[in-house]
Amino acid sequence: MATQEMRLPAASLRDDPSRQAFLLLRSVYTVAPILFGLDKFFNILTDWTQYLAPVAVQVVPVPAQTFMYAVGVVEIAAGLLVAWKPRIGALVVALWLAGIIVNLLLVPGYYDVALRDFGLLAGALALNRLAVLHAGRRVRAEVR
């Protein structure tokens, strides 16, 4: 008996709310980190260094803007990973958001942003769980 991979029949996207949720979350967690990562180089949306805890540049002794360039590279990579391997990428984004939350809790006045990022972390974990169902809908079928 030989084995070959077969795709499961795809349910209509219109009739599959969990697939809709997966595609929505995958799109958001791909595009947002890439856009925010790119903005770390241009500071169009905001001056990102204001969100950086002073202890961060003490631990990694580089200027705050240089630190944010590294943050931007990581965010772009995380967004691309979500697009390519959403199950793994979602966990990377969740861990990254956990780090951002810890950083924000060390900066007085940004607790509301930390709470928002906790909601984003929950969304990334939901994407991970949905990716288990939808990111590689293949089964092994035996061929006689």
Number of helical regions: 5
Give the strand order, joined by hyphens, for the main sheet.
1-2
**Helix fraction bin:** 55-70%
Shape descriptor reads elongated
Q: How many domain units?
A: 1
The computed structural class is mainly alpha
Subcellular location: Membrane
Protein name: DoxX family membrane protein
Transmembrane segments: 21-38, 67-84, 91-111
Pfam families: DoxX (PF07681)
Structure overview:
- This protein has 144 residues and is mainly alpha-helical.
- The chain has one domain (2-6, 15-143).
- It has five helices and two strands, in the order E-H-H-H-H-H-E.
- The protein has helices spanning 17-42, 54-59, 64-84, 86-105, 111-134, and strands at residues 2-7, 138-143.
- A two-stranded antiparallel sheet has the order 1-2.
- The termini are close together.
- Residues 138-144 have low confidence and may be disordered.
- It is found in: Membrane.
- Its main location: membrane.
- The chain crosses the membrane at residues 21-38, 67-84, 91-111.
